[in-house]
Amino acid sequence: MKNRQFLFVLAWLFAGFFACKKDNSLDPNLSKVFVANEDDGTISVLDAANEKKLVTIEMAASADEPLLCHNVQVAPDGKSVWATFLPGGHHGEEQLIVIDPLTFHIVKRIPMGEGLHMAHVVLDETSKYAFVTANESNRVIQLDAATFEVVKTFDLGAGEGPHGIRCSNGKLFVAHVAGQKISVINIADGQITEIPANGKVVQTAVTPDGKFVFGSVYDTKEILRYDLESGQTSLIALPSGSQGPIQMYPTPDSKLLLVCDQGMLDGRPASNKVYFIDITTTAVVHTLEVGIGAHGIVVDNHGQKAFVTNILDNTVSVIDLASHSILKTISVGKTPNGIGYWFPTGGMP
């Protein structure tokens, strides 16, 4: 009898311990990084403060429905996370999937059609609308972020190959790979103006102070800087070892632009460099080595850390922006691509 009582008490103590153990992954005060693992069709969620992986979100509805996850974006109000998904064989229904950033549950699967080759998704400053580039159909598609319905499409013309996109002050800045330019779309009236680039523009970036827009010109290994007030364009040559820039991200104080030098396209070798560019002087002030195939990048809301996806290493590098050093390298899923940052009161655009 005494042995039975002892075992009962021991079992009760263990049950109490595990019942009280906190699930840190669902802590609403924990800043998180969302990583799109393209070839896994998953999203890794990282603890931004402690630099570790929390969970992996499986996005396919079934094992018979493989998905490729190219891009992920946190809404500026922090209430949702959006990601673009293509069918595994590139043929079939493409989806935008909306995720709850607190529970990691899928809120909505939005069927978008076939033959779009959706690339990047962004939201406007109020998180009222989402915008997605359709690379093969040469359009930007606008959705109501509350009803998930398509409300408008912006046709960009044949053969443009829109890819990256950013939103600022009521305008969309769309990178054209084939069209070799940046399209500036006025959301309210649909008017489109163009910034010529004379090269394959993969992604855009806009400084938080609204003064400059940038484009990563892959084939010429340059960064285009466009002054939104004066309309003047300048080109920033990357160091001689560059293999071709992809994603960029400005710091919240609009002083630095961080550029991922991926390479890998057009027969070039993979690169492991991140360049730090002084936005005012346009000088490359620092070069940091991260993982192989540096692709996606985001900076936290305090401007203290940057997070970089390394496509060929299946990792994320965490950068201390004050010391220009690597704090941690975190293993994620296969071929990590897009990346987004969530904090308790919002998300980085």
The total tally of domains equals 1
> How does the major sheet shape up?
5 strands, antiparallel
- CATH architect. name: 7 Propeller
What value does the average pLDDT take? Answer: 92
Span of the ends, CA to CA:
64 Å
Would you tell me which CATH topology applies? Methylamine Dehydrogenase, Chain H
Q: Describe the global form.
A: globular
Please report which band the strand proportion falls in: under 5%, 5-15%, 15-25%, 25-35%, 35-45% or over 45%: over 45%
Can you identify the CATH superfamily?
A: YVTN repeat-like/Quinoprotein amine dehydrogenase
Classified by CATH, the class is Mainly Beta
How large, in whole angstroms, is the Cα Rg?
21 Å
Enumerate the strands of the largest sheet in spatial order, edge to edge or round the barrel: 3-2-1-28-29
SSE order, one letter for each helix or strand: HEEEEEEEEEEEEEEEEEEEEEEEEEEEEE
What portion of residues is helical? under 10%
The chain-level structural class is mainly beta
Unreliable runs, pLDDT <50, ≥5 residues?
A: 4-22
Strand and helix layout:
Elements (H helix, E strand, L loop, with lengths): L1 H19 L11 E6 L4 E6 L4 E7 L8 E8 L6 E7 L6 E6 L6 E8 L4 E6 L5 E6 L4 E6 L5 E6 L6 E7 L2 E6 L4 E6 L5 E5 L4 E6 L5 E6 L4 E6 L5 E5 L7 E6 L5 E8 L6 E9 L5 E6 L4 E6 L5 E6 L4 E6 L4 E7 L4 E8 L2 E2 L2
Antiparallel strand pairs: 1-2, 1-28, 2-3, 4-5, 5-6, 6-7, 8-9, 9-10, 10-11, 12-13, 13-14, 14-15, 16-17, 17-18, 18-19, 20-21, 21-22, 22-23, 24-25, 25-26, 26-27, 28-29
